[in-house]
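Review form for a predicted model. The reviewer records the input and the model, then writes brief findings.
Reviewer: anonymous (R2)
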Amino acid sequence: MPKSSQAHPQLVALIWSHYTLWDLWIDTHVTGPLKRHEDTVNQVLDTYGEPISFYKDVPHILHNIRSRSLQMEASAEQEDRKVVIAACSRTHAPDLAHQCLRLLLVPSSHEHSSPMPKPAIEFFDELEIYPGSKITHFKSLHERTGIPYADMVMQ
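Model under review:
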């Protein structure tokens, strides 16, 4: 829980490359280039046809965080209440990671007013995808967004 008086963090950083959102490491288990078969939802394939998909609950979690952000934007405290979603990864294959985020379609959510699938990258306001440390990622997010560390959550 954030230390400020708000009920939700201002920034949620998803560490998505190391078994948090899917069951692989993008820089060791995946060989590019990647491709998506037509409009297949929540799956891209690597060069050898190996599938890459989010865990089954991840699309719902992304929609849930995003819908909370939209609700907060509609409130009187727009700028102070938006939940920023960041994708963070210490991967040594940042180009492959970006390609995956662009190709991977998150299923629609009628519950959250999102009738069409959309690329995973569109759920993220900030991208910190490069080799380094999580501390560096958080410092960079803090500097760019101005959000206090106490109002950031990493998962």
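Findings: The CA atoms of residues 43 and 85 lie 21 Å apart.
Further findings: The first strand starts at residue 11 and ends at 15.
Recommendation: see findings above.
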